[in-house]
Prior knowledge:
The complex is a heterodimer.
Chain A: H1 2-29, H2 34-39, H3 45-55, H4 61-73, H5 87-122, H6 127-141, H7 144-158, H8 174-208, H9 211-219, H10 223-252, H11 269-273, H12 277-299
Chain B: H1 31-41, H2 43-60, H3 62-65, H4 97-133, H5 135-150, H6 153-164, H7 168-194, H8 198-205, H9 210-222, H10 224-246, H11 258-265, H12 273-300
Helix pairs in contact in B: 1-12, 2-4, 2-12, 4-5, 4-7, 4-10, 5-7, 6-7, 7-9, 7-10, 8-9, 10-11, 10-12, 11-12
Amino acid sequence: xxxxxxxxLAQAVPVVFLSTVAVFLLLHLLPGDPALMxxxxxxxxxxxxxxxxxxxxxxxxxxxxxxxxxxxxxxxLGKSAASKLPIAQLIGQRAPATMxxxxxAELLTISIALPLGVAAAVNQRKRADWGISSVVxxxxxxxxxxxxxxxxxxxxxxxxxxxxGGRGDFTRDQTTALKFLALPAFTLALPAAMNLSRxxxxxxxxxxxxxxxxxxxAKGVPNDGVVWRHVVRNALVPxxxxxxxxxxxxxGGVDHRRVGVRLARAGNADAVIDRQPRLRHRAGxxxxxxxxxxxxxxxxxxxxxxx
Amino acid sequence: MATTTSTPPATLxxxxxxxxxxxxxxxxxxxxxxxIERTLRNPMGLFGAVVLGLLVVCxxxxxxxSPFDPLEQHPGSELLPPGSGFxxxxxxxxxxxxxxxxxxxxxxxxxxxxxxxxxASIGIATGLAAGYFGGVVDAVIMRIYDALLAFPAILLGIGxxxxxxxxxxxVAYALAIASLPIFARLMRSRVLSExxxxxxxxxxxxxxxxxxxxxxHVLPNAISPLIVQISLAMAFSVLxxxxxxxLGLGTQPPQPSWGTMLNESRAYLRTAPGFGIFxxxxxALLLLGLNFxxxxxxxxxxxxxxxx
Lengths: 307, 308
């Protein structure tokens, strides 16, 4: 098993490199001239050309890529063209908040989706299933940026239970920190949980009618035991993959802006939207790496089939 | 001799239609018509169709329906709650929210129709060609679409908007491009299974050319899952248009769009929560209706159903 995991992790390395190439290319295909941004709009063309030469932007693309990759591997992510701060510092400032939010949202997603999906599958065609399906459809139809607004109105303004924005410090006061996280995490978790519950339901339904489940029931195993020990474990295979993919998406932070709740210093998405080209592709790369590693770690579950 | 009475089959026994001797020779309704009937008989499908109809009516008849001009500001009446002359209240510049919601449906409908229309027509045509001809044509088309699929949709949208500039049409083109591979792949897989059928062979035997076979025989038989995909793509386009407008990359102010209204409302949630609630409710209602419609279409077009 250990060798298998190591092998999968090793396979992740070339994929991460390929994604750096993809991010690099995407960046250079988009309009937005870093030399112009650095020099300012009033600068004379000679100044812009000088900056371009200094930054190495007049080199051919493969040379630029190799230079950039060399810097990245040495830990030098360069400076942001807009804010002139080191990018590693900018990412480092945002990373803990992103991690907190992503982890909390992921845990919420799993805890909502799995029970719902299993309950819907086990009670298929009965009232419970119909109720859960309606809730899931509604949850999917509500756009998540509106959901953020609604939750703020309800919990922060009308009820005053939770703060609308900001970030707490986990090392000092866990309860307050959790309160800050609650609204954005739930806004991110809900649509993901709805999708995941549909996947769980479909997966459980497939296993529910298999022979080994029927045998367990025939042997007299109580229904709970059948469902949880025999069905759910096997049904979790595609679900775990989806969870891994979802975590990568959360790390990528693109949705954080759409949540409408501003966590202080959270989300690498600010970089994408604010058009800081260097920061954008620095931020995109760790997300791709995180997603891929996670997916590969969970991919190993495909080999394990419990009786 | 006892006469045996047999009840006529369900499809032919319609109220008001006398079953005379040649009744059994009546042509049954076309499968597509039956599918539409089944969709509308489904309560979810009916709800979805009604919501879609409402969208179209609002968008086309916006001038007639809306009480105020959506761009007209009423100084002194900013951020009013519902009532007092403005049915859903006013926004931060004193513009009537109901009128802006009605006119905002135009953005959603326009983007939805253009994006899905372009994406579906080009995607289906190329998928048909790729599946029918196979070989080099298939390889080239599918590799192009594979490359396109590698880009995440949101990033593609942001990229296209960066090149074409912001605005409704840019969003529509971006969504059309993002949906091309999906339609093409779906069509291609259906065509691959249909082109081996006997009726295609028969058509070829009597001398039908490729174009005729593709358009008259393969396409109508392969189209069913694509109809479901079209309604799903419509729902996705509406959502994406609002999301991009929310981020400031789609419809530009002062043009009304539900996404921009939601974005503007964020600063005034404490004083005028209605500003944030109503456009989102309209959006959620439309999305719910479209999702229900797609589900109902999927059930109605399910090939495993036994056609009566």
